[in-house]
Write the structure tokens for this entry.
Amino acid sequence: MRRAPFGDSMATMRTSILALAVFLAALPARAELRASASAIDITPDTKTSKVWMAGFSMNRRATGVHDPIRSRALFVTDGKTRVAIVVLDVVGFMRPHVEKVRAKIGEAADYVLVASTHNHEGPDAMGIWGPTPFVSGLDPVWIDATIEAIAGQVKALAAETRPVTIRAAQLEGPVKDFVCDHRDPVVIDNTLSALQLLAPDGKTVATIVNWACHPETLWSDNTLLTADYPGYLCGRMEERLGGTALFISGALGGMMTPDPLRDAKGEKLRTHEEASRVGRGIADLAADALEKAVPAKEPGLSIRTKEILLPCTNPRFQIAMAMGLLSRAIFNADGTPFTGKLTVKSTTWVKAEVGVLTLGPVQAALVPGELFPELAVGGFDGSKAFGADLVKKDNPNPPKVAEAPKGPYLRDLLDAPVEMIVGLANDELGYIVPEYDFQVNAASGTLEPHPPGDHYEETNSLGKETAKRVMGAFGELLAK
Ligand SMILES: [Zn+2]
């Protein structure tokens, strides 16, 4: 036996290194995550065009710009799947527009998610906040330019990814002085979750923050375009951690709204100082948590989606569709193109998409509208009321909480260290109201006046069956 020139120990070490190399080669190649991100300005020109602001009443014309309306986008790939996540500072971006963005992006991405923050201080991106009920508030020139700009943004990002690691965190967010619930029962999904993608040089490529509250701090008298608190939130994230920040609105339906501080007379302060306080306050909590988070070991990326049909029984929506204010394809119950005569009494069906996106330790439910927080977390026992009465003592028509759904709720179905609920994902179908508390004034073509108590949200909802059909689809997508 020939003796090894450097003795047995070195030979053993070589053998071990060889064995290790063989072992490593036998392991499946670890996915390398790559990402890129950018924010672009999509603010309409208030000087050269009439810009109608969305979210409160019609005929609110923008008189200028306080801060930009943006498209914030993250492109991420694990080498197999390429996903773009786009968030717009608008009230809602309907599926037909999302499909146009996707068509223009073409092969550059396998899946494109376009969500809206649900900003009530931005341009009408849907068409129902024009000067009169008969005139669309959506500027066709601006929406076409915006679709083009988003597609260009994503295609540019696809060509400039770099390796990243991911870390993520989830915590209980603040309630008092930040968010409150205007509709009984008081249930607040105060989950605050965040992720950060870091390049090898330690610099941040992107962050995402997910929290649930209507972006409407400036309220209905404001006529200067602004991104409201999410703009301040993203600015603060970028100030603290660098990179491009995205903010995703969660289960903000029924009726999560900012809880601004009050002036000496007790009036809520509808100011940029308050929007900044809310946005920066949430950002600081998210950034603190991310700074303590450890990099994830498994940076996998996957997407599953399901197309569903939802019945629309809302006469306001039928009128808006008949007049072309809400332009989207409508169907019969079997999914064939709608053939009947469209009247306020019609039941039409619309196609929508729900999905589950997994990125490392984060699992995100893609919800095509404004999910009521009780469908996300339950809380019918008062455990999510944070000191408020579950039902107001003077509510003339209180919800029958004993008949509320028993779950599982959306966060029970999700199963990951960090959960996100992406509200207004690829669509804005309005409020997703739990069936047990769905009440409308069916005798009225406008659904107004709505039944006593808290039933405004039903007037901006497809109908009674949306919640169970959306939740059923998530049950199938997330079946264990
Ligand atoms: Zn809303």
